[in-house]
Amino acid sequence: MTTGSEPRHAAHETVEERLAEEVVEELDLHPVDPPAASGKKDDEEEPFPSMSEQIAEQLGGVRGLIESSLPVLAFVALNVILGDTVVGLEKRTALYGAIGGAVFAALAIGGYRLARKQPVRHAVNGLFGIAVGAFLAWRTGKAEDFYLPGILLTFAQAAALLISVVVRKPIIGYVWGIMANKGQQDWFGNARLFRTFQWLTLVWVASLSLRAGIQFVLYQMGEANALGITRILISWPIYAATFAFTAWAIHRVTSSQQKDEAAA
């Protein structure tokens, strides 16, 4: 999800999302009911982009992963170097330097893309997330507040997914319909797919809660540097594993149903 289903907002929650394209590159998710041949020539119809292609475009691929990581890495590194560990500056002074470095890194990425006439959407999203976290850290003087927006956003995503299961409108199903079923949401009439999307949405609730929970514990402990390192090192593997499992589970169901239809 972005959360296959995860919405992209602050940069704090985009590192792992942009890795999804690499995870599902070799997976092939099909619509439940492929449309019958229309008789049109191949060159008269614009092919519907594959799931992998759409994820690549939306999440930015490996390059997007690297670019979204740089501001966070700059913040962690400068906070350590300028603080008591190396230079020994006063805590708030070191924090301001780290904030400046993170914002500068985000601006530099956007400027580089503009200079090369490349899309800047991801850079703008990243800058917004960095700006919100930087503002909170600047106001409170606490480095850990730099990560608070991302933590709260992840908890909110988990809550939204849980609610969608309770009201029997699992978000993962809608995401699959848009990305792999040509925008059709006909899975409501498919009992097996519906059940699959219900429990897969709960899997995402658990995944998001785990990632946000680990970070929240470190936030409560005031371990800003450990929080930043954890944010980079463990969040995206959890996301990637959840995304890969989701893609595999859906592929298993749709492929099985296609074989049953072909045999009928």
Structure characteristics:
single chain; 264 residues; mainly alpha; 10 helices; 0% strand; elongated; disordered N terminus
Explained architecture:
- The N terminus is likely disordered.
- This protein has one domain.
- It is elongated, with a radius of gyration of 21 Å.
- The chain has 264 residues and is an all-alpha fold.
- The protein contains ten helices and no strands.
Instruction: Give the biggest beta sheet.
Output: none
Number of strands: 0
Shape: elongated
Number of helices: 10
Estimated structural class: mainly alpha
Along the chain, the helix and strand elements come as HHHHHHHHHH
Radius of gyration, whole Å: 21 Å
Write a compact overview of the structure shown.
With 264 residues, this protein is an all-alpha fold. 68% of the residues lie in helices and 0% in strands. It has one domain (11-263).
